[in-house]
Amino acid sequence: ITFMNWTEYLCDFLEMEDVPELSGHISTIKRGHYGLLDTHAKLDIFQVLVSYALTTDLVREQLEEYIEQRQILSATNREAAVEEARKRRKQQQVLKEAASDAKGRTKGEGLDNDVEGNVGGSEIGTQAEDVSSKRKLTSNGHRVLPNG
């Protein structure tokens, strides 16, 4: 706002506010004769300006309060979403570990059976040696069947 255009802003404001007592002074202000207005008219204009400023500040404060509440709500929702995602990832990891443990147990059962005396890796090797020792080959490469 400069000294030259403040009268335009003041007249525009008075027209927007549409106060009948003050609208008669708009033409005097536009001509640049603000000083010719009586003191009561100037005080009335000042009162309207201050009232508008206070109303604007109250609205601004209320808006700031609403914005702050919205930001808090958004942060809470974001934290809840992050926590939910963390729980899902942890649950998926537990399921993956359980699945890999189950696969490991299935593969490891044969080795466990070997220790328990069931047919396992070391007994298979022993049985293969027994079978190969029972197979006798003749000098021409034919197998001799055991009697029995």
UniProtKB/TrEMBL annotation:
Which InterPro entries does the protein's record reference? DDT_domain
Question: Region Disordered: start and end of each range?
Answer: 84-148
* Segments forming a coiled coil: none
Q: Where is the composition biased (Basic and acidic residues)?
A: 98-110
Put simply, this protein is called DDT domain-containing protein
| Organism name | Nymphaea colorata (pocket water lily)
Q: What is the lineage of its organism?
A: Eukaryota, Viridiplantae, Streptophyta, Embryophyta, Tracheophyta
